[in-house]
Amino acid sequence: MFADHSLLAWTALAVALALSPGPDTMLVLGQAARGGLRAGFAAVAGVSVGGIWYMALCGFGFLSLLNAVPNLFFIVKTVGAIYLAWLGFQMLRGALRKPAETGAKPVALGGPFRQGFLTTVLNPKVAIFFLAALPQFVGTGPDAPAHGMLLIGIAYAIGFMWLSLLLVAAVFAGRKIGRSGLVRWFEGVVGAAFIGLAGRLALARNV
Fold first, then answer.
1. Residue 104: which of 154, 14, 34 has the closest Cα?
2. 3-state secondary structure of 105
């Protein structure tokens, strides 16, 4: 099993990863601004299930394919960039609507959940990070896949807690502000950030 110092080092790395703003953070904040607490938690759940997806890929030994097959990396990153750009344009469009068009409506949770899941699994840089970091903690022995699944689970558990805290804070702030121009402005900033992230992903190279 792991030495205490290895678990501590991985936990510190996972905390740093969670605190780094990325598509999952932007998505959760955007959903919180748009749909409130339930929509935000649905997005967090989608991101977490995306983490389970990576755990499964690690356990079955398929995660390394993304790094070993350049064409596969290119396909995934292209689809991911297009999807992030589409989400960004959707948020920008929502921010530009008049307040009357963005009144309170029942929130369908399937959309935020699906967006959280796809935003995670279509980001190949997440897989590349795990490919680069995990061998330093689990080695290459027969137990490496199981240990890798555990460490990925720890990383996403920390991410779940951080995103949940951000979500609650964003919803609390949104209730204080109300559905005002400032909230719509924030949604527009998140949409623009998604488009920027899409551009970065499109230019990313496999390592």
1. 34
2. coil
Residue 1 CA: distances (Å) to CA of 133, 137, 138, 151, 152: 17, 11, 9, 12, 15
Domain boundaries, given as residue ranges, for the chain:
4-203
Give the residue from 99, 88, 108 showing the smallest Cα distance to 187.
88
Q: Which helix (H) or strand (E) holds 166?
A: helix 144-177
**Amino acid letter for position 75:** I
pLDDT in tens, 159-200: 999 999 988 887 777 666 555 555 667 677 777 877 887 787
Is the whole-model pTM more than 0.85? no
Distance of CA 59 to the CA centre of its chain: 21
